[in-house]
Amino acid sequence: MNPLRVVLGTPSAVYLLASSLVGRLPSAMAALAIVQLVRLQGGDYALAGTMTAVYIVAGAVGQPVLGRVVDRTGQTLVLVVAAVVSSLGFVVVAACAAEAPVLALLGAILAGLFTPPLEPSLRSLWPRIVPEGRPLKAAFSLDAGAQELVFIVGPLLTVLGISAFGATGNVLFAAALGLAGTVAFALNRVSRTAGASENPDAPRLSPVRSARFRRLVAFTFGVGIPVGVLTISVTVFGERHGIEGFAGWALAANAFGALVGATTLALRPLRRAPQRLLARCGLLLAAFYLPLALAELPPAVWLALAVVAGFMLPPTLAQIFESVAHVADRGSLTEANAWVVSAMSVGVAAGTLGGGLVAGLEFAVPVMVLGGSVATALLALLVLPARMTTPSQQPAPVGSAAG
């Protein structure tokens, strides 16, 4: 049977994926929602940028902490409490954004710090409910592709939310979506029973004690860099070619390429162990972004290259997600996946910051794209097969490398 059909036919799989996607929507809506809120309430871009950055950084800090608590106590209570507190943080942001910016910043910290760890929670459940082998690979590929949908739908919902409820009501709308999705996820039987009854007294070592896991986290950081760079490079390209709205089209084209990559991998999962594919996927990801350095190409051609650039992101993320289950202890899977989520977020932020610093240069687009690709390629060297596989995993049987 097709491995993707096996995943879709697994009890609770579609429900858990769908509810987690709804619960994750505030993360995809927050940046644009906060900027629009601050500006429409009379605040300046400095405040909007600071508040958005604070939210993102707080989320990167909070995910591993909440993930560790989930591994010790189970998912349900942690997810629901985190969702309630995060939603209250968004309420404070909505009420105080321009008039009481200090309170609004505190609200942004709460909203980010207590972002429900849905991504790591779901990824710790896949090995429990989906058979090993190609079905599990398909599950992680499906997860990676669905993540792209969140970041396509999120900005669109923000625009619709502002139109329907105003800038203040839109932030509350985002909070309500996150709360509803998280509660729905947490009430599922699979989520309720995960972790709580599995060796509660057994010692749980933090995954960061493992050198292989630390290499994986560093590699994930590198994967995020070109994604962050792209946000700035498409803006600069559009401005220099005088095309209004080009950035939105380019990001959508890149996301479409990612969806194609995710769908391809879900239908035809790779057969080799993920640790043996990490470096190869990372190097291909860097290579696929490189043509975007050709900033003098016609805009239509550059858009096509943006589609190509997105193709390798989900396959690379899928190898990362699956590798976590191999290099981290079973009792710390949620925390391990949370570290990966945070590393990706910080990598995207670093790429955005780096791109912004060189955006004023004459050859800004080539410089930022080349810099991002080189960083990704160098960090891919950390996860070469010899560094990530145990003696029992080497070598792979002849004929198992088929895709």
Automatic annotation (TrEMBL):
The keyword Membrane appears for this protein: yes
Keywords: Membrane, Transmembrane, Transmembrane helix
TM helices/strands, residue ranges: 45-65, 77-95, 171-187, 216-237, 249-270, 277-294, 300-324, 336-357, 363-384
MF GO annotations: transmembrane transporter activity
Superkingdom: Bacteria
UniProt keyword Amino-acid biosynthesis present: no
Pfam families (alphabetical): MFS_1 (PF07690)
Protein name in UniProt: MFS transporter
Origin species: Conyzicola nivalis
